[in-house]
Amino acid sequence: MSNSKLIQPLVIIVFVSIFAVAGYFVWRSVSGSLDTRLRVNRSRVSNPETNGTVVGEEQTYTHPDYGFTLKYPGGYTLGRFPEGEGEVVLIQGKNSGEGFQIFISPYDETEEFSKEVILKADPKMKIENEKTISLGTEGLSALSFDSSGDTGATHEVWFVADGNLYQCTSFKNFGGRMEDILQSVRFN
């Protein structure tokens, strides 16, 4: 057998191996972030802007437009993505299901925010185990509840501040941790 006949199959094997390894890493990267995106349409995402600074084991994020500050665990990533008239802030850990999103949208309703207001806007929404909680140093009143839908079981915390509705959503098993993180929210 000549060397040229041996080289051609080896070159093909090397190229197939390179593409297989690259494909695996791309798949791992994409699949790890998709499950925590919940309701955000991935095709709308473009160049997330971050503004996180590391402070010991904790990171602090200050939103440049909505004027809130939030502390989240070191090693987590934070991205901002436009979504309709609002924006999504995505906080994500390294493990699948570790993280949550905050969907921020204008809120100009005159009635006090409540479970009934949510159900009036979306009668099909399931709201279970609801309770009113207080967030941050300002004691923001928030509605904490469990829900379920196309993405599975979720835990949600919704509140209104400075004319905007904040819909914070995580997988149900991360709900307690999300509430702990949200306790650090402060409006400037």
Topology diagram in text:
Elements: H1 3-34, E1 52-55, E2 58-62, E3 68-73, E4 77-83, E5 86-92, E6 99-106, H2 115-121, E7 128-135, E8 140-149, E9 152-161, E10 164-171, H3 175-182, E11 186-187
Antiparallel strand pairs: 1-2, 2-3, 3-11, 4-5, 5-6, 6-10, 7-8, 8-9, 9-10
In short:
The chain is of the alpha+beta class and 188 residues long. It has helices at residues 3-34, 115-121, 175-182, and strands at residues 52-55, 58-62, 68-73, 77-83, 86-92, 99-106, 128-135, 140-149, 152-161, 164-171, 186-187.
Explain how this protein is built.
The chain has helices at 3-34, 115-121, 175-182, and strands spanning 52-55, 58-62, 68-73, 77-83, 86-92, 99-106, 128-135, 140-149, 152-161, 164-171, 186-187. By secondary structure, the chain is an alpha+beta fold. It folds into 2 domains: 1-34; 42-187, Mog1/PsbP, alpha/beta/alpha sandwich (Protein Transport Mog1p, Chain A, 3-Layer(aba) Sandwich). The strands form 2 sheets. The chain has a 7-stranded antiparallel beta sheet, with helices on one face. Strands 1-2-3-11 form a 4-stranded antiparallel beta sheet, with no helix packed on it. It is globular, with a radius of gyration of 21 Å. The model is unreliable at 14-55 (pLDDT under 50).
